[in-house]
Each structure stands twice: as structure tokens, then as C-alpha cells.
Write a structure and sequence with these properties.
42% of the residues lie in helices and 16% in strands. It is built from seven helices and six strands.
């Protein structure tokens, strides 16, 4: 396993034919107030790339090209938030999308624990540390601990997808999951437009 740290953009020459696992780190969870600080990615090959935006410069042409590429599947855990942050800061709608949290909720109905730490433990036997989750991601320089934490959030998403796909097929819910994944960019747009607390489908 290797972790690569980049400022402002991805390097040239990376390949993501099997989809790209993506996560983000922000100054907080308020979509209107808090800024995007880090985007981390993995091709599922055991390596992770941590892209840091200390200067709030989101031009990042190579990262933008990857995020906007309709031929590359983007894997997230809780895609709703990351997609909204990407839409807000990059002006890009990511598609196609796969969300391990949504998949888990559709097939792991025997539990109410659907966090990334829970999935890694239950499906992969891996214990993730969440110690750096609330650290200062807006710092001009990230610590080695922050970079390692950011990488851990994407290193296992490909393996989780394979496990969850098996469960989706077993329970006959693959088509339902695909429909939910297709709707996620719209759900993110609704959040950004102010409907984050309201269920517009409720009576």
C-alpha cells in the first residue's frame, strides 16, 4: 500500500478503469458554510491519492476531468454529502455513482450500523481508526496522521462494493439500488438548493 499526497490536483497518468473510490474532508458538515479541503481517491489497487486544497483553488483540471468522466464509476460512502460538496466547489455532477452506505441500508436490514467503520469491520474484518475525523482539515499543511486517515476512507470501498453487490444480488435488490444511485446527484442538488431538511416526497 502506498499513499500519495498532492497539492491542488492529481498528477498526470493515473488510470481508474475499475472505478474510483472517492471521499472528501471539509471544515464541517454545513454545505453552505463549510469549505472543501481534501479529496482522496483510490483505484482499488491498494494505493490512495490525497489531494489537498490549502489555497481554495479548485481549478484542478485532471481531478475535474476524472470526476466528470461518464465512463468512470465513482464509489462513495455516504455519496449524498460528497456529491454536494463536489457540485458546490467544482461545479460538476458526478455520474455514474455507487454508494456503499445506501447499499448497506438496502441489504443489511439486520442492523442499524451502516458507517464505514461498521462495514469494514463486519464485511472485511478490518478495524478503521476514526481518530482524525474531526481534526482541522483547513490547515495549510496536513499531518501524516491526517493523510493516513484520509487514505483509509477510500482504500476499502472497492472491496466493500464487491461484498455488497453479492448481498444485493442475494436479496434481489440490485435494480432498486441502481435506481437509488442514479438519484443521488439530484438528492445532492436538492440539498444545495435548500431542501436538505425537508422530505419533498412526504405527504
Amino acid at each position: 500500500m502506498s499513499i500519495y499526497y498532492h497539492r491542488g490536483d492529481l498528477p498526470a497518468g493515473l488510470a481508474f478503469e475499475n472505478g474510483v473510490a472517492i471521499d472528501s474532508e471539509t471544515m464541517g458538515l454545513n454545505l453552505q458554510r463549510d469549505r472543501l479541503c481534501v479529496v482522496q481517491l483510490s483505484a482499488g489497487d491498494g494505493d490512495a491519492h490525497v489531494v489537498h486544497f490549502p489555497d481554495r483553488d479548485y481549478r484542478a483540471p485532471r481531478l475535474r476531468g476524472l470526476l466528470a468522466d461518464p465512463k468512470v464509476l465513482k464509489l462513495f460512502h455516504y455519496a449524498r454529502f460528497d456529491l454536494a460538496m463536489i457540485q458546490r466547489h467544482f461545479g460538476i455532477v458526478c455520474s455514474p455513482v455507487y454508494c456503499t452506505k445506501v447499499a448497506s441500508k438496502l441489504v443489511r436490514t439486520n442492523t442499524d450500523r451502516h458507517g464505514l467503520k461498521d462495514l469494514c469491520r463486519d464485511l472485511l474484518g478490518i478495524d478503521l481508526s476514526k481518530q482524525q475525523q474531526t481534526s482541522d482539515w483547513g490547515a495549510a499543511e496536513l499531518s501524516e496522521e491526517q493523510i493516513a486517515y484520509a487514505a483509509s476512507d477510500v482504500l476499502y470501498l472497492h472491496a466493500l462494493r464487491r461484498k455488497l453487490d453479492e448481498l444485493l444480488d442475494r436479496e434481489g435488490r440490485r435494480a432498486l439500488a441502481d435506481a437509488c444511485f442514479s438519484f443521488l446527484p439530484i438528492r445532492a442538488a436538492l440539498d444545495l438548493a435548500g431542501w436538505n431538511e425537508e422530505d419533498i416526497f412526504a405527504h
